[in-house]
Design goal:
CATH class of the largest domain: Alpha Beta
Helix content: 40-55%
Number of helices: 11
Order of helices and strands: HHHEEHEHHEHEEHEHEHEEEH
CATH topology of the largest domain: D-Maltodextrin-Binding Protein, domain 2
Strand content: 15-25%
Structural class: alpha/beta
Amino acid sequence: MNVHHLELFYYVARHGGVSAAARHMPYGIQQPAVSAQIIQLEDSLGTTLFHRRPFSLTKSGTDLYAHLRPFFEGLPEVAAKLTGNQPVHLRIGAPETVQRDYMPRILNRLKKRFPRLRFTLSTGRADWMEQALLNQDIDIGLGSLIGKRLTGVREQELLKVGMSLLVPEKSGYTKVESFWERDRIDLPLIALSEDEPVCRLFQAELAKRKVEWFPSLEVPNQELIGHYVSQGFGAGLILSANPSAGAPAGTRRLFLTGFPVIPYGALWLGNANELQLAFIEEAGAEAANAASSRKA
């Protein structure tokens, strides 16, 4: 058996297909080359390792993957021990807002502790991060902690984040209670997609108050919410870990007192290594700074 062929099969089995394996290989290789070399491996073994459409491992493939997985997944740790270096590459998943507003400070402090740190940033929601952790596509995530975690995923709460409404300065709304006192809210609601945790919790609280106000415009991130509110398209539902931060030009922020707060924190798989623990510590320090700003 060719060790390189075994490595290719490991990635095919881990990621569920030849195309996905080619995308996740740590070095460049095209899908046809992967397919050709897997066929060579199957010919040398005299057995089929997986069904192509839909993808599933055969009994032989399952047995071989079970044998290869501990070896290939343990190589980074072995390399670190042999070289005497701590792991310095961290793959991080986080929402765009976290990456923009908080991640640079976290990573700057982390680099002082690990001068050889390299990192990769990926964007996604908490449910994506959990699956990415299980697939070993990321090492750690920062996201909302609503609901139960997938088996094997661990969490640590770092911060609770409240909801606010952004309204155009010229709208006439100066307090949030004015919305609930009206028979009909005349401002369109701008929000993230309806399956986002903040939107689900917001609508659940409105239902308790017997208020109907559904989004007229759904956008992919909070920056666009602020942009459209400033242009007069309606009121926007946002989250902010630092309420002392100013509202976008042309808007006013009204805090949604009495509405649910959303826990945010770190997500990782299994026992955290030294680098992951240090990242969680620095993320916690950043969360504490945000909480202090809120109280100030």
